[in-house]
């Protein structure tokens, strides 16, 4: 995402999907890389998710491609996510699971390159959603103004990212 605000205008104002969360974080897989992660909610609770990196050199690899940082996020229950995980394991299909604190995510890349996230909400999703919805626009403005501090108070102390098959 080259410009979160231009994207916000298109997705929220023109398409009509509400901005429901803005997460400002530091990458756990690339220390020092900071980003702004926005979610636009679909009627079923799923979301379109977009990233903008704080540094232009980090941003370049995102433009014009679909990858883990530009993906479709689909909401699921624990049983559905686990069934998908088991089917992927049975095929030895590469994927990863990451606990973000605010959601448990299974990421998998389709053969055509489309990145999918199968996301399971935590038990306290209502509390998290209320806070992020209330401050989504303010957090986006803060991050775009250059304040790249994280706002993820729910991320586990030990960053849990598990790759399958094991690397």
UniProtKB/TrEMBL annotation:
Taxonomically, the superkingdom here is Bacteria
- Biased composition (Basic and acidic residues) is annotated at 148-160
What InterPro entries would the database entry show? Glyas_Bleomycin-R_OHBP_Dase, VOC_core
UniProt-recorded Gene Ontology molecular function terms: dioxygenase activity; lyase activity
Keyword Oxidoreductase applies: yes
The residue ranges of the VOC domain are: 1-121
Keyword Lyase listed? yes
Give the residue ranges for region: Disordered.
Answer: 148-167
Q: What is this protein called?
A: Catechol 2,3-dioxygenase-like lactoylglutathione lyase family enzyme
Keywords attached to this entry: Dioxygenase, Lyase, Oxidoreductase
* Gene3D superfamilies hit by this protein: 2,3-Dihydroxybiphenyl 1,2-Dioxygenase, domain 1
Spell out the PROSITE patterns in the cross-references. Answer: VOC
């Amino acid at each position: 995402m080259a410009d979160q605000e231009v994207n916000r205008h298109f997705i929220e104002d023109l398409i009509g999907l509400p901005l429901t969360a803005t997460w400002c974080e530091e990458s756990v897989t690339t220390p020092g890389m900071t980003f702004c992660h926005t979610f636009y909610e679909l009627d079923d609770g799923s979301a379109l998710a977009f990233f903008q990196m704080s540094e232009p050199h980090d941003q370049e690899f995102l433009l014009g491609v679909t990858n883990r940082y530009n993906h479709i996020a689909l909401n699921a229950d624990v049983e559905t996510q686990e069934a998908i995980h088991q089917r992927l394991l049975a095929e030895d299909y590469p994927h990863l699971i990451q606990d973000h604190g605010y959601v448990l995510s299974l990421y998998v890349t389709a053969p055509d390159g489309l990145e999918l996230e199968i996301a399971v909400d935590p038990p306290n999703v209502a509390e998290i959603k209320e806070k992020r919805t209330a401050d989504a626009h303010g957090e986006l403005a803060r991050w775009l103004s250059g304040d790249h501090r994280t706002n993820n108070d729910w991320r586990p102390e030990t960053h849990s990212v598990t790759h399958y098959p094991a690397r």
